[in-house]
Design brief:
Blueprint (H helix, E strand, L loop, with lengths): L8 E5 L4 E3 L11 E5 L7 E5 L3 E7 L5 H7 L4 E2 L17 E7 L3 E7 L4 H12 L3 E14 L14 E15 L11 E3 L1 H11 L1 H15 L20 E4 L6 E3 L12 H37 L7 H8 L14 H29 L1
Parallel strand pairs: 5-10, 6-10
Antiparallel strand pairs: 1-9, 1-11, 2-3, 3-8, 4-5, 7-8, 9-10, 12-13
Helix pairs in contact: 3-4, 4-7, 5-7
Length: 355
């Protein structure tokens, strides 16, 4: 299965970071944070706009090379550096980082004595945060047709990650559901939803390339008012004969936290914007054709009435408000749906955990 090689992947797991305090009597001394951020030999499902739909697991040894060669460049961040108050400030230096052959990578981080770390301490001590890490796949093995099994009842493709390049890890607000079988879930779509605020051009390029590569066949929004996966389908492919968008279906299966009315309103607004842009484009083309016909007329045979009409010819509409290219509009619409789906699933998993 082909994937985007330059895509940063994000995985969240349910084990909570733990704090270890020294035996010193100084209560102001900052503790050491212990973080586990992956699980070996555990299958979990990835259902992502950017990555596709498959089962994934990581095997022992996948982190050894990146720990050995890249440890000094690995950062410890809160919420992947996207928190509005903390930003990408590091939480502390890595004291130890190793692979446990059974549980996976384990890190000990000496928290810096900073105001933002002290703000995080109550939540860390209460165990309300989970763990997450960002990486790229270096070596992998795919089984495109594994067949149905106990761990893969639908028989979707399976990926085994054998080597990664680790960039950062740390506590996150919305981890995986600890009651789920694997306790691991993908947060790649959510991550790029935040990156898009800082670098929209890069993310739009990834959206377009992901769409061409391996998107699932339907994107659906499953709201609280629906009992099935049926929902509005995003128009994404251009009809080669009519020049209008036809329906290609892409499947994501999150539960919605938004109401059906809110989701429908957002989709309708996006579709109205596209329709208005297409009408403007058609008007421009008609105006340009009329102008070209008028210029081809024989000037010697024009009557005074025709010359007067020519003076009153309306120029094509201003291009100050011309629509964006159709490919970019389609990518934008697809992005809206993908981000909404990821946010809804994240909120659902969080509230399921609270219950």
């Amino acid at each position: 299965m082909e994937t985007l090689k330059d895509l940063d992947l994000v995985r969240a797991i349910s084990p909570r970071p733990e704090l270890i305090r020294s035996e010193s009597d100084d209560t102001r001394e900052m503790p050491t944070m212990v973080v586990e951020f992956s699980k070996f030999n555990t299958w979990y499902e990835i259902n992502s706009y950017f990555e596709g739909n498959f089962l994934e697991r990581t095997v022992a040894g996948a982190f050894k090379k990146t720990i050995r060669e890249n440890r000094d460049n690995i950062k410890v961040l809160y919420d992947h550096g996207h928190d509005y108050h903390i930003g990408n400030k590091v939480l502390g230096p890595i004291k130890t980082l190793r692979e446990d052959p059974v549980t996976g990578p384990v890190a000990e981080v000496q928290l810096l004595d900073t105001s933002y770390n002290r703000d995080l301490l109550p939540g860390l001590e209460a165990g309300v945060y989970g763990s997450s890490f960002r990486f790229r796949v270096v070596k992998e093995e795919w089984n495109e047709d594994p067949g149905r099994s106990d761990h893969n009842p639908d028989g979707i493709p399976e990926r085994t990650i054998k080597e990664v390049r680790l960039y950062e890890f740390g506590p996150v607000t919305f981890p995986a559901n600890p009651d789920s079988t694997a306790g691991v879930r993908g947060l790649t779509d959510d991550y790029y939803g935040r990156v898009r605020m800082r670098n929209p051009e890069m993310v739009e390029d990834l959206v377009a390339r992901a769409k061409q590569l391996h998107l699932p066949e339907r994107i659906t929004v499953n709201t609280k008012n629906q009992e099935t996966d049926d929902a509005d389908v995003l128009d994404t492919e251009e009809n080669s004969t009519s020049g209008v968008a036809s329906t290609t279906n892409h499947t994501l299966k999150p539960e919605s936290v938004l109401t059906a009315e809110q989701t429908e309103a957002l989709r309708e607004a996006a579709n109205n914007e596209q329709e208005a842009a297409e009408r403007t484009s058609e008007d421009e083309q008609e105006a340009a054709q009329d102008e070209g016909t008028s210029e081809r007329s024989d000037e010697d045979e024009r009557t005074s009435d025709e010359e007067a009409a020519e003076d009153k010819t309306v120029e094509p509409p201003s291009r100050l408000h011309s629509p964006m290219p159709k490919s970019l509009r389609r990518a934008r619409l697809a992005w809206i749906n993908g981000v909404l789906d990821g946010q809804r699933k994240r909120m659902r998993d969080y509230y399921d955990d609270e219950e």
